[in-house]
Batch of 4 targets.
Target 1
Amino acid sequence: MQDLETTKINKVYKCTLAFIFDGLDESRLTLDFDSGMVTSVEERSSVDELFASLVNRTLLPSALVWVTSRPAAANQIPPEYVGLFTEVRGFTDQQKEEYFCKRFKDETQASRMISHIRKSRSLYIMCYIPVFCWITATVLQDIPIGNKAEDINTTLTEMYIHFLLMQMNMKNQKYDGKKQREHTKLLDSNKTMILKLAKLAFEQLKKENIVFYEKDLQACGIDVSDFESTGMLTEIFQQEAGLHEVKVFCFVHLSVQEFLAAMHVFLCYLNKNMEELQFFFEETQNEVRLNCELQSESPLHYLLVKAVEKAMQSQRGHLDLFLRFLMGISLESNQNLLRGLFPHTEDSKDSVTKTTEHIRGLLQKYISPETSVNLFYCLLELNDNSLYMEIQSYIKSNRRAFLSSSMCSLLAYVLLMSEEVLDELDLKRYKTYGKGYMSLLPVVRCCRKAMYVTC
């Protein structure tokens, strides 16, 4: 607005304006709603100060402001400045099926796809994310009709591994004229390329960057011309200061960056690359190595616990999906799928068991609803469905049970995601704290009768 004439500026104050800020969690803005407020459209200021001033209405108080964000980052905005909070939960069960019916015009193929997904509880839950529906459809479309349900990939991590394999196979066929179906050989032939992309993904995720410049690629040994064929990076143009346009890059989807970053971290663990793993530890590299040696019976568990702690410390939740992928890749079955990239696999049963116990312990404490849901998904990535079954037992049983506030959040989440309509919700069945009861309030939307006496 710096070039507007005074008469035009006056008109601005009389107009109804709407500002849409898409992706607060990706912006890395430093927000301060108590100082440095802007009051005039003629005043120059930084983007973060302009944003905060619009939100708290010191600037253009009549303007409408709409902000989209992943849940954790949305909490940066004080509740007193939020007039309406809308949670977009992704696809409903009906919309999941509609998606596959539209994606596959052949009714038999669409029906087969839906049937496969329904048989896998974790897969069916995860399909609430539209991009996951797309990747699931891409991966499963070539599966013969006769395949058994138990042969279908069932976790987010497995799906993304197969998506990576498909992208590399397409790249080989299109640019090298080769068709390679054997997983290990396919990954081994593209190993250098994939590992450089994985390093780039992690380096930029640490900085909370989703777009990056050619110099960032070069720092990871990436020649742009060699990587355009992978289908994992996309190139966009961004206007810089002045009239210049420069190339900037991003992964085809943020989740692909998070998946590759997790793969890089696990590879660093296998190679005992303490310098790269330093991100997760407060100690010096020597102390980290010593701690791993002291816990030599399950050093992987030690890393996974530290990764959980690091993700929980993030105010923006930028490590949430990365954490799920890291959990999934730690499974020996998924390590085997990535054998062409990893120098060796590791028996992780003991570490996985200890990590699931650690996560279950965290869910008995008070943690935010967003963190509770993410840890729930981490358990699914570790092929632990016991918590889901436990929640189902609370829903179906009439027995009284004590629930932590985190468990209340998960109970509400599962009920809302399932779209199941309850005949009655009686909160007297659950013993919890005030915050726990507050977490259950949204469930009133999916029950015919709700009893909140003495809550």
Note: The chain has four domains: 6-81, 93-154, 192-345, 386-451.
Target 2
Amino acid sequence: MGTSTHPYHHRCWLLNFVLKTIWMFLFLFSRKDLKVIISINNLKRSHWINMDILLQALHSRGHNITIVRSDKSWYIKDKSTYYRSFTVEVKRSLDQKYITELVSKAILFERGALPLTNFLHMTLGMFSTFVDAHMAVGEFVSAMLSDQELMRTLRDSKFDLVLTDPCWGGGVILAKYLNLPLVYNVRWLIAGEAHLAIAPSPLSYIPITGSGNTDKMTFFQRVKNVFLHLVTQTQHHLVVRQVYQKICDKYLGPDNDYHQLMLDADIWLMRVDFVFEFPRPTMPNAVYMGGFQCKPAKRLLSTSLVNFNVVAVWRETNNEVSM
């Protein structure tokens, strides 16, 4: 057996990984005034809502938040009471029509209203647009890193960590460029889901998110599971090769592999409740925070219920109930 595959070396690697994760947790939770930088090009609305709630919570605990944003951001305001921002000028932005159509079709597929063949046809047909969307993100990252004055300001600010959405590749590259710890906010990658990337995940027993399968699959369901995984992996690697790896080669050096940088995140905040997940391997740096968006319900004023009547009519058609 070669030296690199000896069980002792695997145990040493795992021990080093666990100790590093524990150190990161102690560092983050012991500090009362963290300086956090967030790299955002143009998050989809759901991703920004998710990030925004987290930023407000960090600000309420005395941490300092800085956002690097595109001048064509859809939802991220230039001025805010709980963060300061740096704006990077870019020539183009993500196609909002494409994002809306893609999300709508994905929801229909997950609800079973869109056949697998139609979904795959849509995915393959829109792949060039998918790459183009990440090309726009890549242009934002290049413009940001090429701005020497901005980079000097960010270095002099002495941030403690980079908080980013792994669905887009800018934060990963910025963290490496500034040599800062990297924290992810959601479970999604460029294409696919995080667990399949960070831990061994046998596809015969672990369903692809959105496939509709359970952990007990028939032969054909397993074939479907593997096929969907291959589609997302192909998308991921093609986008990385065509967009983000080129940026890494230019600004970080040819020895930096984007895929490895992505997997080297220090902490991964998984916005998912593990109670509703099927059993699967995970890693020590994955923190499950399902329900963090929930807030205490506001008490209704008694006056608002005066003379308020509700009439509900229920109808059952084709085994479906509607109101």
Note: The first strand starts at residue 35 and ends at 39.
Target 3
Amino acid sequence: MAIRDDIFALLYAADDYVSGEQISEKLGISRAAVWKHVQALEQEGYTVEAVRRKGYRLLPNGIRAVEIEPYLQTKWLGREYQYLTEVDSTNIYCKSWADKGAPHGAMAAADLQTAGRGRLGRAWSSPPGSGVWFSLVLRPNISPDRAPQISLATAVGVAAGLRELGYDAGIKWPNDIYIGGRKVCGMLTEMRGSMESVEWVVVGIGINCLNKELPPEIKDIATTLALASDKPVVRAEVLAMVLNKLEYYYSMLADEGFADIRREWLANNITLGKRVNIRTLNETFFGEALDMTEDGSLLVKREGGGEYTLVTGDVFFA
């Protein structure tokens, strides 16, 4: 990994092609080894032009720290950063990191997750070099009963970041991000604490970016930024813009409470007023999504009469 990072740094800093011979001499490795590491960078999602008698030139679209930095405006979020070429799950990684003392705002991102997960334990497709898969460690000074508000603030921040980049992003309760009626981003929030306090919260976020084709089982319900628009998708810019907005909304939640987050969520939701299919552990029913309550629950009018307050469960458009 260290040699690959060195090759990446050489190519990233260069204004033109860098010959295999130059890289070989600089790093003390064979030209065959250089080629092997270049191929590994391509597997991470980078495009490396290889031209005979000229060498290699990097067309960056990754999420290493040096690529994110030009776009990043945060003070504390994402400043402690672990970049991983491959991991089972960034949430699993960050939970372990949090237990070892990771600071508030620490972030881990990966080019490939082999066991990415969404809400309710569902698998999350995260092929190499195609999206932005990352998790954040937060240490909020809130009571455990308010922890779900972090998930809603995250949805507001991600949607705001994508809108800043020109995408018409909306929120489906509680925190799925949709573009053009299809899901482009999912989240998973996990917490450790006691009855009285929160030790840490890990927020996992997956944004589909570059894929032009999706697995058959999700192609009718999911989308990617590349499919949603003709504009070029720069993954580092996407990640940084989302982080910029997340820091703003996390700070709003900490300093001013949930009311302003709720207003932002309501202004950008695509759920209310829709006919929905509600699925909980105990029942399934149809109704109309009426409102998000002051604590973040979803108020639903049952088709058979009466109202239901959904705290945990699935919402599908019917």
Note: The longest strand covers residues 182-193.
Target 4
Amino acid sequence: MLEVVEVVVVEVVVVVVVIVVVVVVVVVVVVVVVVVVVVVVVVVVVEVVVVVAVVVVAAVVEVVVEVVVEVVVVVVVVVVVVVVVVVVVVVVVVVVPVVVVVVVVVVPVVVVVVVVEVVVLVVVVVVVVVVVVVAAAVVVEVVVVVVVVVVVVVVVVVVVVVVVVVVVVEVLVVVVLEVVLVLVVVEVVVVVVVVVVVVVVVVVVVVVVVVVVVVEVVVVVVVVVVVVVVVVVVVVVVVVVVGVVEVVVVVVVVVVVVVVVEVVVEVVEVVVVVEVVVVLVVVVIVVVVVEAVVTVVIEVVVVTEAVVVAVKVVVVILFLASIVLEVAVVVLLIAVLGGEVLEVIALVLQELVVIL
């Protein structure tokens, strides 16, 4: 009986454990499914929001870029026209007189200065060439003297060696045969005489060569000094003449520049009026473009009534700011131009009528 009860208890425990495990597995599966569904829903919502935002932003950016490009093109065209007009006026009023003065006065002076400098340069080159040639000749002579001295020394050494060999041989012979002693003495005397003669000749040659080299160096130094003095005198004279000519040219150029500056002042007054007109036109164009951009933004981002109201408030503020800017520009024109303000306003109104 006890064994049967134990078996039944074990089976009941096993069944309970299996049921608990199954329940836990089912709960885990349900939780995983719920989490997956929530994640999928969140991802879908985020993708939809991102797509809507990208579409709206792309539309706004496209419209704003088109409007900005058109405004930039208009401003660039106006600026280019003004710059071309100013450049043409400056070229006609300033560059042409300056070119005429340069061609008539400066070019001949420059030609004379260049010719004088070329002549001086040629003289200097000739002097340098002469000095180089003389120096090369001196170097060659020194090399020749050195070679002669070396040859003479080699000959003397050879003669001395030969004499020593002969003396040694003869001494050996004398040791064997004392009869030839007299001959050896005679030969030694002859050798000594020959050596003395050779030494004297070498000394004379060296002295002569040294004297010749010294004389040539003195001549070269004298020639170089004379040439340098002549060149310095010529250069000083040329520099003085060129300085006087340059002073005259500077005076003429200063006079011409003063006259040209007076003419340019008149031209600058006209250019200032044109630039003021261009600034007014650009300000009006910018105001119109800002209003157009705001209108396009209103049409694109009409999502809720609150956004519409906010955009309308921004439009009203921009409109008031544009009115204040236009009034400030008019006041600035009145303050800057004074008596000419009516003419400037008339020109601006004509430009606005043409643009509209």
Note: DSSP finds four helices and no strands in the chain.
